[in-house]
Amino acid sequence: MTERPAQRIPNRQLAALIAEAGFSNAGLARRVDQLGLEHGLDLRYDKTSVTRWLRGQQPRGTTPALIAEVFTRRLGRRLTAQDLGLDACAPVYAGLEFAASPEEAVDIVSGLWRKDSGSHAELRKIAFTPAGLVVPSRDWLIGRPDDRVARAEAPPGGRVPPQGRPVGRPMAVPEQPGQVPRQRARTEREPGQRVTGGDIAALRSVGELFRALDHAYGGGHARQALVRYLEHEAEPMLRGSYGEQTGRRLFAAVADLTRLAGWTSFDIGAHGLAQRYFVQALRLAQAAGDRAYGSYVLVTMSRQAVYLGHGREAIQLARVAQQGVGSSAPPAVQALLYAVEARGHGVLGEVRACTASLVRSERALEASRTTDEVPHWARFFDEAQLADEFGHCHRDLQQYRAAAQHAERSLQLRAPAFARSRLFCRVVLACSRLGLGELDQACRLGAESAAQASEMRSARAIEYVRDFERRLEPYRDAAPVRGYRDKVATLG
Question: What are φ and ψ of residue 469, in 5° steps?
Fold first, then answer.
């Protein structure tokens, strides 16, 4: 007697969510295919595929996670494959989750550090997704502060590993047969050790070092070293023992380093990876109880959106940051938030809105006083940076005379240590001179920028130069342009 195949159970959870979302079977299939394209997947689902899923067939590979993400976007709440009655699989948006607790945040970000440290080439291929900005920024804005971040002190003579089980001291081992055993020196931090003020000061100092390297030489020079430092030093601290006040300071310092890891990833063109670091830095800032720093992370995310041409998302992120800190932020911080919003309007060609945001930024900076307590991360926003923002905005709006004036002022005021920012501004000036018909000056400035970019490890620096070269195309037969190309060719 032949055995009948097991009967599939209809998927009532998926059916209920399809009804709630108002999808047709064909509409759901189409959205899954479109989302797959965002991740480089060529999927060919149709209404028959959805009918089979409703009858109990399990889709393969990462498709359950894609389906869950389609419903997450539609319904505005995070859903997993299991919520849809489908088999669990690795989430498509791993690293973009806004963790429910500090403990979960540590697990997510430390997993990201470890994977980045070991599989850099793979992670660089992850695509940036504008949809991945919505849930984290919303959760940050409306989320409640974490009640507690402290971790239990290690017991005398022992340490607390990640799962919280005390273990004894390291085993004493002999150096040679017959020798008296001696205690093994602890040269590396282990999970469970007590975190001190000196540890946090070291994290801050490391951040300043890597920031200086990034400004001068580009994100590619020391990015991997920073990620390894986070993996080998910051993670054991987060899994160590600390009181409430020390814990908040620790999360703040690690949030700053994680944002910097994202910034350097952004600078080398690893945009999906950078996006994930920014989201995790935002969650760590919430654990730190540092609302103002969270707004700075959103500003960073907005800058990435501007660079990638997503002006509407950039504006939304800037406004969420403004709403999140309110009017209590120092004027210099408010000036930064308004300037970043202006950049989004500039990308979209919205002249009036862009001008209004620039005026707000200028007035806020004028209202700042030397006696104000400005956070360390906002001190870079000075007259030189404001002039730079004006220059970029006017260039995007094709107001080239104003763009040139502000770019020149920024270059006069900007310190040499900010080499990459000066390069960007010089390219803005070159594009503005080109827009004014001053071809000789434009090519001279462009050649200087190309020479500097060739000495940096910065995909953004290269892209700025390429953007200038695209603008040169209508003049490709002119003598200054031929001279520019000859100079650039010698750079290799």
Answer: -65, -35
